[in-house]
Amino acid sequence: MISVDPASPVPPYEQIRAQVAAQARDGRLPPGTRLPTVRRLATDLGLAVNTVARAYRELERDGVVLTRGRNGTFVSTATDPTTRAAEEAAVAYVRRVRRLGIAPELAVRLIRDALGSPGTPGPT
């Protein structure tokens, strides 16, 4: 799926980033596909963990992938900037409620309550 050419003048993290982005763009990595963990891909490619982590960070910054904490990194399902921004907000919310120790059921109920609340801005 992904390979790195050590003789290439292109840095390994950029080779990984470009390959994943191209495969997501052409459908070889469909939306929702879970990518290998950073550690697993680094081991498979014989690279440092930080090299793969940098590639994943740049892919996330570009909206190609979405990292869901311990659940893994997935090819983004976002097809437009608004959906991508909503996914990022959802991930930030999940990280925050986990740090607060809130149970998933309560976190979902809080979202449902906020979406149904008359004081919460809805779609425009």
Summarize the structure.
With 124 residues, the chain is mainly alpha-helical.
What report would you give on this structure?
The chain has helices spanning 12-26, 38-45, 49-61, 81-100, 104-116; strands at residues 65-67, 73-75. With 124 residues, the chain is mainly alpha-helical. It has two domains: 1-77, Winged helix-like DNA-binding domain superfamily/Winged helix DNA-binding domain (Arc Repressor Mutant, subunit A); 78-124. The radius of gyration is 17 Å and the shape is elongated.
Characteristic key phrases:
124 residues, mainly alpha, Arc Repressor Mutant, subunit A, 2 domains, two-stranded antiparallel sheet, 5 helices, 2 strands, elongated
Report the radius of gyration as a whole number of Å: 17 Å
Shape: elongated
Count of discrete alpha- or pi-helical segments spanning 4 or more residues: 5
Output the strand order for the largest sheet: 1-2
The CATH superfamily of the largest domain is identified as Winged helix-like DNA-binding domain superfamily/Winged helix DNA-binding domain
Poorly predicted runs are none
Q: How many distinct folded domains? A: 2
Q: What do we call the CATH topology of the largest domain? A: Arc Repressor Mutant, subunit A
CATH class identity of the largest domain = Mainly Alpha
Can you write the helix and strand succession as a string? HHHEEHH
**Total strand segments:** 2
Estimate the mean pLDDT confidence. Answer: 88
How helix-rich are the residues, as a percent range? 55-70%
Profile the largest sheet.
Answer: 2 strands, antiparallel
Oligomer classification:
single chain
Strand percentage lies at: under 5%
Q: What structural class do you assign from the helix and strand content?
A: mainly alpha
- What is the distance, rounded to the nearest whole angstrom, between the alpha carbons of the first and last residues? 42 Å
How does CATH name the architecture of the largest domain? Orthogonal Bundle
